[in-house]
Amino acid sequence: MADENLTASLAKLELVEDKEAKKEAALAAVRKNGRALEELGWEFRRDSDVVLAAVEQDAQVLPCVPPQLRKRKEIVLAAVRQKRWTCWVLAEVVPHLAGDKDVVIAGVEAYPRALDVAASRLKKDKEVVLAAVREDGRALQFAATELRRDKEIVLAAVRQHGRALRMTRTFLPPPPPLVRRKTKRAPSWKTTKTLFGDPSPTNSPPEQ
Predict the structure, then answer these.
(1) Is the Cα torsion angle 156, 162, 168, 173 positive or negative in sign?
(2) Residue 28 exposed, middle or buried by CB count within 10 Å (0-12, 13-18, 19+)
(3) Taking every annotated instance into account, which residue ranges of this chain make up the domain DUF4116 (predicted)?
């Protein structure tokens, strides 16, 4: 049914002659189904308004967007804010923006584990890491070593998810050695015999 609706929308678009009306029809098509962008001509793939509307509806169309528009921050932000596709967008479609702080913060706020595909320098950035662990404390595992020791970050992570503390164990100082308490030993058989006599039964008759 979705494919039929898409085909119908594109068919109507072909009948429109006015340039402005044609753009409105293209916008209507991609707002219903972002993948419609793949079927549109290059005049619409190069139109930032149409591209943005398509990406907002479905980030999967980003690879068919011209390279010059893939550099536009508002278009990339629309894609990384879609939790399902955040890591894919940062790691494969626009890896050059995995080092852009604004883009990465938007990404980790949508999908905190996207911190894993962020540039190394951003894994050392306290603001970026805090944005991630406040959404999911387990994202702490992807932070740089020095930030996994940071009190503010660890507390924020643990407040969000108690198991986040496990991510810090490797970096916490070892616990002090256990102090063994001196305990009294149970009295030996010899001691018992000396104090209370031999409790073993005997065959000797009782004294009169």
Answers:
(1) positive
(2) middle
(3) 23-70, 125-166
